[in-house]
Amino acid sequence: MDTLEYRIELCQAAAEQLTQYLQTLSVEAWCHPSACEAWEVRDVVAHLTWGAELYAGAIARGMQGDTSPLEDSPPPGTLTRAELSALIAQRSIAYRESLGEHLLATFTARHDHLQRLLESFSPQDWEKPCAHPVGLRPAHWFLTARLTELAMHAWDIWSRRDPTRPLFAASVPLFLERLPGIVARNARPDTLLRAPLCYRFAVTGAVPSQHDIVLEGDAVRMEPAGTTAADVRCQCDTETFVLLMYGRLTPQTAVARGRLVVEGARDPMATFGSWFTFA
User: Which residues contact 177 (CB under 8 A, 6 or more apart)?
Assistant: First the structure.
């Protein structure tokens, strides 16, 4: 059953799985590129470490009724998505540089602190608003966000060495839950479309479902599949769909690997791939 208690257990399991993998890496491997654009493995780990610290601080303050903007964070809505991404990258790398050889130990310690905090919440605590750089969020949002970030960034780290290794399996349904907001907020259009393009995905596997991804003007939205004709029809499993939406897998690569079947005009897939390049 998908309960908050279950998600807390999954969060700890995902962190332990990643920690065990990181403990096997050589010193040189920490400097290898990850699947997260322009980030080395150590930068991704620093990002997760800093994220645990930020989340713990935000929700601890929220439990006390303090929803003021986080220290050293710009007020919500003052930065574009690209500016916010650049700021996050800059701070993650600076954090990594400050930790040096203590990065892995600090990652474990910061996650353990956040985990204990999440485990201490009462049922009524989960709806309390907490500050985040993109705006106020209920406490339970931070739990799901942390779990999916651990799962995706773990994949970023290990997929370069083992492209066949899957996402943390139990996290896949939660990615589907978050995708509409992720797609609308994070897609990066590189053109202004004069007419909308509708991509209909028949998703199989862990979470069988059908979705329309609509590119219109300079915006993207994800919605349940409609009854009108789509410009492009696609079929893939749930994990492939998630990786496509997160910009970790291009349509061209997915087709070449047999993970994505496309019916209809092929040219629009190039537009699709260029819009989903976020980290």
Answer: 144
Asked if residue 270 has pLDDT above 60, the reply is yes
| Per-domain boundaries in the chain | 4-165, 189-275
CATH assignment of 4-165, among 2.60.120.10, 1.10.10.10, 1.20.120.450, 3.90.215.10 = 1.20.120.450
Cβ 251 vs Cβ 273: under 8 Å: yes
Give residue 133's pLDDT. 83
CA gap 20, 78 in Å, rounded: 39
Residue 276, class by beta-carbon neighbours within 10 Å (0-12 exposed, 13-18 middle, 19+ buried)?
Answer: buried
Full-model pTM:
0.90
H or E element, residue 46: helix 41-63
Residue 137 three-state SS: strand
Report yes or no: 180 and 209 within 8 Å, Cβ to Cβ: no
